[in-house]
Structures are given as structure tokens and as C-alpha cells.
Design brief:
transmembrane helix; transmembrane; 73 residues; TMhelix containing protein; membrane
Length: 73
């Protein structure tokens, strides 16, 4: 995954945390509603960016996990 996808995921997470704080402090409904809609749009864009990323690898399922490699026997 490229850095842009990670940045978009961070922004989406910050928006969700900010919404939770806004709701707990009884911020006006229109503001919460529009920020929620913007967060959903950013999330959909993030999913699109991750799925259309030009990423390829030489690894296969036989390589297992990178932190727990299986030795060839």
C-alpha cells in the first residue's frame, strides 16, 4: 500500500474520533451530519485508492507470514 492510502486512512480515523467527541459535547446536528457525510466520502475514496493501487509482489501463500517464515524442509 502506498503512503497516500495510509494518509487517507489516518484522516478517516481522525474524522471518526472527532465525530465521537462532537457528539459527546452536543455539537449542532447539521455540523455532525456534514462531517459524517464527508467522512464517508473519504472512506469510499480510500477503498477505491487501495483497490486500484498498482501493487504487485513475488510472494505466494507458500511464503506464509513475513514475521514467521516457514523453512523449506
Amino acid at each position: 500500500m502506498k503512503n497516500t492510502a495510509m494518509i487517507l486512512l489516518t484522516i478517516t480515523t481522525l474524522i471518526l474520533v472527532a465525530l465521537a467527541v462532537m457528539v459527546s459535547y452536543n455539537v449542532a446536528f447539521p455540523m455532525v451530519f456534514y462531517i459524517t457525510c464527508a467522512g464517508q466520502a473519504i472512506f469510499i475514496f480510500t477503498v477505491y485508492k487501495v483497490l486500484t493501487d498498482k501493487y504487485s509482489t513475488e510472494k505466494t501463500f507458500d511464503d506464509w507470514y513475513e514475521d514467521y517464515p516457514i523453512e523449506d524442509k
